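Objective 1b: paired records.
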Amino acid sequence: MYYRTTHPAGTVIVSRNQRFLYIVQPNQVAIRYAIGVGPECESISGLFRVTGKAGESDQRQVAGSAAPGPDTGRKPGAQFALPALYFGGTHAVHRTSEPARIGQAARQGCFHAWEKDIADLYERVPLEERVVIAN
């Protein structure tokens, strides 16, 4: 989609009010993803970097951890449902446990994305990429 910005290609831009996440591409184009905004990220803003990526099969989980629970989708020892892209140390874009809440406020977590979208983001966005959280 057309997206006018001064940020360089590759930058992840999260628009909390619009409930969209964009990955800036060359020539004033961006890839757009619908998101839900949880209480842990409803008031943050600023410039961050992707500091970590955690996938479904990430071996850094607590030894002996169980599969995700049906109520939260979180694994013991994980801060957010996996897969997740971490930025700013304690914030993340992560898989939602409430798909119907994409595009609106979520009850928990940070920035929620549909499973297919977070899988795409996980592959496209490298560590240390810029993340801009706006409005």
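Objective 1b, second protein:
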Amino acid sequence: MSEVAAPTRVRAPRVESDAAVRAVAAGSALVAALTHVWVIPEHLTEWLPAAVFFVVVSVGQLVLAWLLRRPPSAAIVTLGLLGTIGLVVFYVMTRTVDLPFLPAAHAEHLPTAWGIGNGIPIFPGDRMEEVGVPDLVCLAAELVTIGALCALATPVVRRTVTSGLFAIGVAMLVLRLVGPLG
């Protein structure tokens, strides 16, 4: 009778130490950070909280790029993924949903008798941002960052992130179809 050998586990090469993947992640995080720096002056003139947001985001992305010079810990990869995914989701929301905490497109306020505001009504969609070239450059860089960080992540984190991204996509599609995002 012949003996059957137990299957051996094939070990995949460790991507965590791959300098090329870290370079891609760091480079794309740097591109996203510089894009955010580029739009800070424009937002300073429009709405100070947005400018402060872009400063904080830029610093975070610069720190991430700096930390990726060496093999990062699982915590750094996970935080980088969560932060970058959060930025992409927030970006999509600001381009597709009339978010109530954003200022309306009408920045000029004319005085009104016995009232507050400028007398110009806020129409649905007035709080949605327009899509521009810097937006698309930054979005592409952030998507590359997510992909590279997933490659650096542990299998558990990678599975969780991909499942989470799928769930977010399905949820946004359902919300779009039933109305709140439509």
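The helical segments are 19-46, 48-67, 74-96, 133-152, 155-178. The CA atoms of residues 42 and 137 lie 17 Å apart.
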